[in-house]
Amino acid sequence: MKIMVINGPNLNMLGIREPDLYGRQDYPALVSLVEETCRQNGIEVEIYQSNHEGDIVDKIQAAYGTADGIIINPAAYTHTSIAILDALKAVQLPAVEVHISDISRREPFRQISYAGMACKKTFMGLGLQGYRKAIEWLQAYLNEQKK
Ligand code: DQA
Predict the structure, then answer these.
(1) What is the 3-state secondary structure (H, E, C) of the chain?
(2) What integer pLDDT is reported at residue 63 of this predicted model?
(3) Would you name the residues annotated as active-site residues?
(4) CA separation for the pair 12, 89 (Å, rounded)
């Protein structure tokens, strides 16, 4: 089983950006958590971060035919990007949305998630542990589909 984990803009600034919202752990700590969770569960993983919408679209497209599923935190593009929604729909891979903060309790402009419309499940407000939950959920979902 291979999954692609995609992170959007400013997530490379974890640990520095708004620590009260996003915590004090940095992006390398997130990469380690994802890699370690996947290693423990026998999952092959590619983890990617970009600040550029088109690059994220390219990465989603690159998952087609190479990955079994996608975990995505599109960050601010969550609330603006129909291109990312369309890319997720295009590749038709099971996708799980993650947000470190609880976007449902934040500003009105964060209440819409376009990417989420193409995702099977969302984990939010769990800090970096949301990624672990998302990986485990996606693995269980993919195993169920194989039966
Ligand atoms: C975020 C929430 C978004 O609203 C915000 O723009 C981000 C991070 C989160 O992980 O909580 O950059 O996706």
Answers:
(1) CEEEEEECCCHHHCCCCCHHHHCCCCHHHHHHHHHHHHHHCCCEEEEEECCCHHHHHHHHHHHCCCCCEEEEECHHHHHCCHHHHHHHHHHCCCEEEEECCCHHHCCHHHCCCCHHHHCCEEEECCCCHHHHHHHHHHHHHHHHHHC
(2) 98
(3) 22, 99
(4) 26
Structural domain count of the chain: 1
Residues of the chain short of pLDDT 50, as ranges, are: none
- In whole angstroms, what is the distance from residue 19 CA to residue 69 CA? 30
Look up the domain containing 77 and give its range.
2-146
CB of 33 closer than 6 A to ligand 1?
A: no
* pTM confidence score: 0.98
Q: State residue 92's pLDDT score.
A: 98
Give pLDDT tens digits for 62-91: 999 999 999 999 999 999 999 999 999 999
Ligand 1 neighbour 72 (Cβ under 6 A): no
What CATH number is associated with residue 140?
3.40.50.9100
